[in-house]
């Protein structure tokens, strides 16, 4: 669904635009981000979320707005956005500099604490925002291994989750119900995508 919707749009940034942007920001963006942001730098996904198996429970609405870095913005604009989103993530970091992460190896979904040595871009290693939810949760790229690999960081108030997959695969998996994420909520159905002009929409 996501691939089809974005793929129907023409690319608005050239390879040269991306080369300039990456040189200015000092970042090397993953291919799926270049592909998405070149056609749809901002869009939102709205879906019904049934968090409980009770058939009598009315599903609530989830809305995730995706705001991707793109050559139409400056390095300073990206830094300002990063600072704003990182401030929203700060409640998840305790006084010891630790964050509670969902333990991927525990089928019960219990948490484990990890040091969190990351800062808002342009600090290194820097957190680069890519979206937020209607509930005020913030989502980031975190370049690791010298920027050769990007992890997805998903926050949910006082805890978080690492996801090691391309962002496009994550979004596609959520709307197709092939992937259930306990941070971004599971059981999505009736998903829709709406494209918006950058900077014109807020949750």
Please report the total strand number as a whole number.
Answer: 10
Largest sheet features: 8 strands, mixed
Order of helices and strands: HHHEEHEEEEEEEHE
- Low-confidence segments, given as residue ranges, are none
CA-CA gap between termini = 22 Å
- Estimated structural class: alpha+beta
Count of DSSP-assigned helices: 5
Overall outline: globular
Mean of residue pLDDT?
83
Strand content: 25-35%
Count of separate structural domains = 1
The residue fraction in helices comes out at: 10-25%
Computed Rg = 17 Å
Report what the structure shows.
The radius of gyration is 17 Å and the shape is globular. 25% of the residues lie in helices and 32% in strands. It has one domain (2-195). It starts with a helix and ends in an 8-residue tail after the last strand. It contains 5 helices and 10 strands. The mean pLDDT is 83. With 203 residues, it is of the alpha+beta class. Strands 1, 2, 5, 6, 7, 8, 9 and 10 form an 8-stranded mixed β-sheet that branches. It has a two-stranded antiparallel sheet with strand order 3-4.
